[in-house]
Amino acid sequence: MAYRPAEQIVHKAAWLYYTHGLRQDEVAQRLNISRASVALYLRRARETGVVNIATSTHLFREDMLARRLEEVFGLDTVWLVGREGLIADPAAEIPRLAANVFVDMVRNGDRVGVAWGRTVYAIADAMSYADREGVTVVEMCGNLGSPYSYRPDQCTMEIARRFNARGLNFYAPLVLSTEDLAGDLRREPVIREQLDGIGSCDMALFSVGTLDADSHVIKCGALELSELARLKDLGAAGVIAGQIIDAEGRLLDCDYNRRVISADFDAIRAIPRRLMVVQEDEKLGPLEAAIRGRFFTHLIVTSTVGARLLERAGQDPAGATATEAIA
Amino acid sequence: MAYRPAEQIVHKAAWLYYTHGLRQDEVAQRLNISRASVALYLRRARETGVVNIATSTHLFREDMLARRLEEVFGLDTVWLVGREGLIADPAAEIPRLAANVFVDMVRNGDRVGVAWGRTVYAIADAMSYADREGVTVVEMCGNLGSPYSYRPDQCTMEIARRFNARGLNFYAPLVLSTEDLAGDLRREPVIREQLDGIGSCDMALFSVGTLDADSHVIKCGALELSELARLKDLGAAGVIAGQIIDAEGRLLDCDYNRRVISADFDAIRAIPRRLMVVQEDEKLGPLEAAIRGRFFTHLIVTSTVGARLLERAGQDPAGATATEAIA
DNA sequence: AGCGGACGTTGACTTTTGTCAATGCTCGTG
DNA sequence: CACGAGCATTGACAAAAGTCAACGTCCGCT
Which UniProt keywords apply (chains A, B) (predicted)? Predict the structure, then answer.
């Protein structure tokens, strides 16, 4: 990456200020510029990721509930947003927390798969810029012109931009009109290659979708409202990377799924670190399905959902009281 | 790790201030404490690693020289400290840069091997505290009561402390009086286990030592001054983790090496990311030997040394002029 | 119970940082 | 070549953050 000389001075100012601990006026003197410029450069340094300020997310891991969830469901790490007294609405805090955790989980050279949805976009939005090197962000599902929200490819690209990374979009729609066409397309070398590339990711970021009249797959037009009832009868329980799963987390055997171009579930599960982020308390059911399908290793949810998960798994959510006590 | 309630408020203040972007007085109001306390907590948050401020090290990777070195010697990443006009003495900047790079390279759950030396200790000293989880720091060589400087085990422990990590020290001296004793000790299960654990590290940090009257191994008493001449005749070129290597980077066949308890070279090379840091321009020779022995994948040196390495490898250090131009 | 020390907290003051309108500079265009 | 748009830079002022002595509180000890 060619270095614009203008950026050089920003790096120098940031290094002197943040690493050497000089004051702005000292930095100004050292670099022969005004202090106002130093202040300006430092702001730019923070905004562009030349300087990265990360805050510990321990706050959201500190109660017993999180540890119990990790233990009971065999997860790597669980973060819970409860009533820490930080903000009125826990759900609103989730993308911010997820962005912090996500940025921390991605390192130089990583290949990162992202699925899309409202939550994922909110995370992208809350992410700080970071000066990673050699990161690749790959889309985990086909594309879709979402009329009311952000498109999957925009989502991928936005995240890539924040990591100074290369963004790889799928050259295919998420869902096609016929099974045959989807099959043909999947066999196309370009598409094949993209699908195969998902399994070699180092980490993944996604959410799980619901299946209701106002859920994402419906609203963005991937799925017809009329198909919904029949799918539910077949046992549809949630949506992962644009594909419908049953209550056990298996790919539902249905016409819709056969017309979809998206990541293979085994490929997803082959990714070592998979961060699942769920904002809404209403997604409890789909989340349980996703757990059974072993789709993720790291989880961020509200403590309400955390407690319910344990309850419904026949576990006493002991420590829930501790959570409440935090406030 | 049990959470002292006092720390909780520090985390909360840091989260609100750094992640939500509130002002100190707003944080104070939200947490029902005085603004002065908020300022205090925030400082503590920074000092203890609850908040981590990392500055990009791009500044030290920007010239062609670094890229040429990576290419010619097959290294992963090279950072060069030249005359960026930041500080008078490039060598003094190296531990600071190395500390930044090192902290960035270690992630949760990593097992990190550290060798010791003046440089490694200087790095430990310059490191910020970070709130890593599940990190283990293992000593890569036996111990030694260094009269004039820090001991290997102190070095390991200090680094562990900064990562909130577990530190594993070697339960053996670096060098013994007889070959037999060293052999027996190496075969002891406790020691065997520690030696074996080195190969399973995720990353390593070390420097290379010289062999002169005033070099580290001599000064700390590991090696007798009287032995030096004979070792040089045998082809001794440098020191890696307390062991002597020849110009080709191979373990020198000598009495001293047979009496040493330290990491096996193949185990070191089995570690995927190995950061070599060299402060002194005088270590050019030992460094070349270390390169030939493929001891490291990442390198931090002065640009003077960088240029010389290329020259002596028969490469024109083009771009050196570019380096100078930076100032 | 009384005492003393250590440590956490705060208000008031100082220093440092953020901001913004005004100015200067560069470069493409008529 | 002159002009002006757009952007970088700066000085001066306002806002925010840092500091510290004084005070309060808790806890162990006599």
Answer: DNA-binding, Transcription, Transcription regulation
Q: Which of B12, B27, B55, B57 to mutate to test the interface with A (most CBs of A within 10 A)?
A: B55
Q: Rounded mean pLDDT of chain B? A: 89
> Is the CB of A96 less than 8 angstroms away from the CB of B19?
yes
- Give residue B298's identity as a one-letter amino acid code: H
pLDDT interval class at A258 (50, 70, 90): very high
Dihedral of CA atoms A136, A140, A142, A148 in degrees, nearest 10, equals: -90
B312 vs B148: CA distance, rounded Å: 34
Dihedral angle sign, alpha carbons of residues A22, A23, A24, A30:
negative
Percentage of chain A exceeding pLDDT 70: 92
Q: Is the pLDDT of residue A202 over 60?
A: yes
**Cα A154 from Cα A254, distance rounded (Å):** 28
Residues by CB within 7 Å of nucleic chain C, which ones? A 17, 23-25, 35-36, 39-40, 42-43; B 6, 9, 33-37, 40
Whether A252 contacts A245, CB under 8 Å: yes
- Identify the sign of the CA torsion B155, B158, B159, B165: positive
The token pair that represents B232 in the structure block? 């040089």
Of A76-80, A250-254, B61-65, B256-260, the range with the lowest mean pLDDT is B61-65
Q: What confidence score (pLDDT) does residue B317 get?
A: 62
| Confidence (pTM) | 0.87
